[in-house]
Amino acid sequence: MVRALVRLTGLLLVSASIQASAQSFPITVVPAQVESGSPVLLHLEAPANAAIDGNWLGRKLEFFPSHDGRSWFALAGVDVEAPSLAQIKAEVELKTKIFATTAAEPLWSSNFRAPVAAPPTDSFGTRRMFNGKLASIHKGMDFHAASGTPVHAANSGVVVLARPLYYEGNCVVIDHGLGLYTISMHLSRIDVAEGKHVATGELIGLSGATGRVTGPHLHWAVRWRDTYLDPAKLLRLDLSGVR
Predict the structure, then answer these.
(1) Which residue in 38, 68, 109, 113 is a FRET match for 32, CA 20 to 30 A apart?
(2) Is there a domain that residue 243 lies in?
């Protein structure tokens, strides 16, 4: 069994696990410093009659002999998003944990307010298609907010997340109690810390274009338990006589 280790953007990956008969042979990986999106050439010094089987990041390697019959080669590669996979997995686990815990009483008071003074788009529920298939459903409201526009808490609650994420960019999640959350994404700056109690209208950050976006705007989402709700409908709901 022959193994080669390759360092990829701070992550130590097993580049190849090669079974070549019962004998070990030296293997070379080019380039030695693999980057995302990079093609990779593996060179194994083994005789032409060697039985070689291998895999690269969970994918089967197809080895072919060299012209002189003294070694074997295989082509492989690294996906463009490979360095982010560990981060994305960790963030999914983080968000699952956050949304699994909520205040046991309402933390909000009266009506919810728009988080930013900018025109919104009627984009909630928009279905995005790719090659004739449903790629995603827009689960929030986008505001045409220039970078640096103040973003406020739509209602009182507790900040349960205030940090940069891969897709959401600088993100603030406020727990309003009983499983109701508001989520502000793509901020250029975060002005609150996790665990902070915020009042309605309190500054939580500035809008921006961080994360996976094409331009500056505020993506604002409303979540109840594991369901995303239409933010526009929450803003129109009259709660003034409730609390």
Answers:
(1) 68
(2) no
pLDDT of residue 134: 54
How high is the pLDDT of residue 25? 63
The domain boundary residue, chosen from 50, 65, 80: 80
Q: Which two tokens stand for residue 180?
A: 């109701």
Task: Tell me the per-residue pLDDT of 182-206, one tens digit each, with 9 for 90 and over.
Answer: 999 999 999 999 999 999 999 999 9
Q: How far is CA 54 from the centre of its chain?
A: 30
User: In the predicted model, what is the mean pLDDT of residues 15-30?
Assistant: 56
Tokens of 130: 């790719």
pLDDT digits (tens, 9 = 90+) for 33-61: 777 788 988 888 877 777 777 777 777 88
Q: Which of 12, 46, 80 is the last residue of a domain?
A: 80
Task: Report, in angstroms and rounded to the nearest whole number, the Rg of the chain calculated over CA atoms.
Answer: 25
The answer to whether 172 touches 150, Cβ cutoff 8 Å, is no
| Rounded Cα–Cα distance for residues 242 and 240 (Å) | 6
Same domain, 161 and 63: no
First-residue to last-residue Cα distance in the chain: 68
Q: Residue 194 corresponds to which tokens in the numbers above?
A: 């996790």
Residue 118's CATH number? 2.70.70.10
99 domain-assigned:
yes
Structural domain harbouring 178:
86-236
**What is the pTM (predicted TM-score) of this model?**
0.69
Q: Report the domain count for the chain.
A: 2
- Residues 76, 156: one domain? no
57-88 pLDDT, tens digit each:
777 888 888 888 888 888 988 777 666 877 88
Write the single-letter amino acid at 171. Answer: C
